[in-house]
């Protein structure tokens, strides 16, 4: 007997543009074992059956770049450009506690589940102590999400507090300890990386981090060319035209690398991304909020660069909502190019699903609804005033659907939310503890000078 059958769904499997059909999905032992049109065979009994009439079944969304704990810092520093904003974010390392990381990250996970995200890549960059990383990981595991923990390193930069600067060897020992502790953790994988080269990394770190990543089969996550100021720094300090060009001499662009933002990259650098198989996490809401600029997403897609979608942290987004982000990604390219047809809704949805899975090295497990993949699935209710009538399913997922339309979320075959009710998390308790953590953090921050 199967563990689960989803019936009567409009299935959008993300296996090819335009592919969608009414059908069913059978799940056994956490794996998708059948995806079919129409009704399931009469003998396909299951322990659990979900009638998905009125809903679309999608692969769970993949948030390829975030900082979960930052939900505690929503709307705290607005109206600032990247550098003065970063100075405050980095400065928080002096007052953040492991408890802030746990409670903030757990609230970020609740928001993620509620908006249909089944995989998050947590780009971790503030580590005043080793417990901060461990508590973030514990939150993601308690929430039941599929997660990539990208434990990055900073070893320089005047805006980085001393307490979170590390010598490469010292950081590598911490990362090895995390890897040893979580070697057998299901649903959890790891990356490393330089946080924001070159403004908080030395050339020595870039060389060493590539060597360490290769030795441990880790992918690399980095903030790349987010604002003009970062590109100015690479020109001034290293005589290179751009950050990607600078990183190339250290072998950082590669098939297992994902570069968040990549707003200010030249055509030559897009070519480097394509030739090396590097992925980009496009974070349009964060880029707009900080006034960074518009990433050349259309050019990247045209040249065959794999593009994923990320929210970025809530300190610059201010949410973890990928539906919001999909709509922003679509509209931003249209207005930037003065061309309503410059980007297709299917391509935007692909960034939020298979593109993200591929960027994180998880596309053999998730990102599409296919037999053999893990059952990371969401059901999104379309039977409401803002989604009916459905004339173009891909456009309407990107432009009409809302995070609050996600009714059911499943990771690895385990249901995390059913009919908008979280199954294994006490949401009220998490909200009240996160509010307490927020008050404590802001009280500490108010006593700092920047
Ligand atoms: Zn970021």
Features:
450 residues, alpha/beta, nine-stranded mixed beta sheet, eight-stranded parallel beta sheet, 14 helices, 37% helix, globular, binds zinc ion
Write the layout of secondary structure elements.
Blueprint: E1 2-11, E2 21-28, E3 31-37, E4 46-51, E5 55-59, E6 61-66, H1 82-91, H2 98-114, E7 117-124, H3 130-143, E8 146-153, H4 168-181, E9 188-194, H5 203-215, E10 219-224, H6 228-238, H7 243-248, E11 257-261, H8 267-276, E12 279-282, H9 284-289, H10 297-302, E13 306-309, H11 322-337, H12 345-359, E14 377-381, H13 393-399, E15 406-411, E16 414-418, E17 421-422, H14 427-446
Parallel strand pairs: 1-4, 1-5, 6-7, 7-8, 8-9, 9-10, 10-11, 11-12, 12-13
Antiparallel strand pairs: 1-2, 2-3, 5-14, 14-15, 15-16, 16-17
The structure holds zinc ion.
Zinc ion is lined by residues 65, 67, 123, 223, 260, 312-313.
